[in-house]
Design a protein that fits this description.
Elements lengths: L4 E8 L5 H15 L2 E7 L5 E8 L14
Antiparallel strand pairs: 1-3, 2-3
Length: 68
Amino acid sequence: MGGQYEVRMLTIPRSTSGSDARKMLTDEAEYGRWELSRTRLYPGGERKVWLRRKIIRVRPTFDEDPED
């Protein structure tokens, strides 16, 4: 059963080093709980990266309309 995901797209310029890009993506994954969904390398050297994270729905644990 598939879940719903929130998607975020990042553009990484050609001037960004591989180690800097890797650190940025690692930080997003570790602290923002994002996972890599897709990458695309363009002819000019620019990279677009799509990240996704699962949307977690929280149900209330209390009765909002208690019957007295």
